[in-house]
Each structure stands twice: as C-alpha cells, then as structure tokens.
Design goal:
Layout: H1 2-34, H2 41-90, E1 108-109, H3 112-118, E2 133-139, H4 144-159, E3 164-169, H5 175-180, E4 187-192, E5 195-199, H6 207-218, H7 247-265, H8 268-291
C-alpha cells in the first residue's frame, strides 16, 4: 500500500514538473534571444549562418530590382526608338520625281492621244525609283470652279519649271474620267511613271495650295516670288466660262424619252387609248355613211 502511494506521489510530481517545463519554454526562448551571450558557441555559429543566409536572400532581392529596371530601360529605349521612327514614316517621300529639263513654262492643253503618250508606263520602275512625274488638270469650260482655278494653274509651271503640267478637257475625253477616278471637275492628279500617285483634295484651288501639295509629295521646292499675273487670266486654261452645247446631255434626254415611250406602249393605258381611238373612228365613219 505504501508502494502504491509512493508511485502515486511520484506520478503527480512528474506531471507537475512536466507542466512547469512546458510553461517555461517560451520564456527561455525569449531569454536566449535577448541574451545571446549565454548560448553555446555552436548555437551562435548556427544563428550567424542563418543570419548570413537571410542577408544573402535580401541582397538577392535587391540585386533583382536593378535587373528589372534595366529591362524597363531597354523597353523604354525601344519605345523611344519607335517614336523617333514613326515621324520618319510620316514624312517619307511619297513619290520620287526626276528633275526634267527643256519643259515649257506654261500649261499644255492636250488631247487623248497626247495624254496617252505622256502616260507611258515602264514596268521596271517602281514608286521608290526616280522617274518622270506629270501633273494633269481635268477641267470643263462650262464649269465656274474650273475657270476660277485656271489662273492659279496657269502660273504653276513657273513655280515648278522642272515639272510638266498639262490640262485636259474632261467633258471631251470621258475615257480618262473612269480610268483615273475623276468624279468631278476641277481635279488635279500627280502621275509617277505614267501611274496616278496622289490626288489634290483641297477645297481652295490657289497657287499656294497647289505649290504646297506638289512640294509635300515630291519634295521639289517651289521657286520664290511666283504670283498670279494678268497674263495668267488669258490662258492657256480658259478663265472665262464658255457655254458649250452638251451633246451627251441631249442624247441622254433622248434616250430617257425613248425608253418612256417604249414602256408606255407596253402598258394597259396605251391599249385602252388605242381602243378608244378605234371606237371613235368607227362611230364617225358610221355617222358619215348614215348621212350619205
């Protein structure tokens, strides 16, 4: 019985001692952390190595940041290069025109044969290769806008003595309207190697606008102090509206009238009208026979 009681007290003592050790562990950890002097040399070395590893990790993170900034700098430099290249693409020469010599300093009024001879295409020449350029002005004598732009166009060859400029009556030579997309007059088109390159789309047909347009797409500078004179109002392109009979307009009206008559002849109204005429004619004949 005494042995049992001694074992009982021993078990209680062990439990109390175990609980005390467990409750004292956190305080011991805090104390060892605050008082590293009492630690053994091996533990100090281990903690030092652990600290070195943590420092190396933090240093590796610091090293990674400059790499990221370097890549960002490279990307920014690429963007800056692209931004500097984009204006070059915008200001790139659209057509390369050769500086022709022995060209008349006035506009040449051409017909279809002459214009076709001037627009001969060399298949071996592309737009990037220098070739002859030609400015073609499509006009109509009865169009008031064409006549208002005529003096400015007549002065244009003096501003660009190395560029041939011709004018063609778009109402006489309709074949070019469809071929080159001329939907209205006046229309000015620059040709390169016999091919249409760019069309003048401004609303004001002035010498200044014509000059700016040509210089923009050919880089050929205009001569200074060139202005419209009184002689430019006299030709070659007429600056006075000329009332000409439009035979094609009369032909179109005749075609419409003929089509309307054919359509009416096939309708029921036409048959009723014919029947009424026949009945009236028979009645008049019968009445005439009765009077005889």
């Amino acid at each position: 019985m005494k042995v049992i009681m001694n074992l009982h007290h021993l078990i209680i003592f062990v439990l109390v001692l175990f609980c005390g050790v467990q409750s004292g562990d956190p305080e011991t950890i805090l104390d060892t952390a605050n008082t590293p002097d009492i630690l053994s040399d091996g533990l100090v070395e281990k903690l030092t190595e652990a600290g070195d590893l943590s420092d190396s990790d933090s240093s590796s993170q610091v090293v990674e940041d400059p790499l990221q900034t370097d890549t960002e700098d490279v990307n920014d430099s690429n963007l800056s290069d692209n931004s500097t290249l984009s204006p070059k693409n915008v200001t790139q020469v659209f057509i390369n025109c050769s500086r022709s010599e022995n060209i008349s300093h006035e506009v040449e009024i051409v017909n279809s044969t002459r214009l076709l001879n001037l627009l001969v295409v060399n298949p071996n020449i592309t737009r990037a290769i220098t070739a002859d350029c030609l400015g073609v002005y499509f006009f109509a004598r009865w169009c008031p806008f064409s006549t208002m732009a005529a003096p400015h166009l007549n002065a244009l060859p003096r501003a660009f003595p190395n560029l041939r400029i011709v004018a063609v009556d778009a109402m006489k030579y309709h074949m070019f309207n469809t071929q080159y997309g001329v939907v209205g007059v006046p229309t000015f088109i620059l040709f390169h190697n016999g091919r249409p390159a760019v069309k003048f789309n401004e609303t004001d047909y002035t010498l200044e606008r014509f000059s700016t347009f040509i210089t923009k797409f050919t880089t050929i500078p205009a001569l200074e102090k060139i202005s419209v004179t009184s002689a430019d109002f006299n030709g070659p392109v007429p600056s006075v509206v000329v009332k000409e009979p439009d035979f094609f307009l009369w032909l179109s009206w005749g075609f419409l009238a003929g089509s309307a008559l054919v359509f009416f002849a096939k309708s029921s109204w036409y048959r009723k009208m014919i029947e009424v005429v026949k009945v009236t004619w028979r009645e008049s004949e019968a009445q005439h026979d009765h009077m005889d």
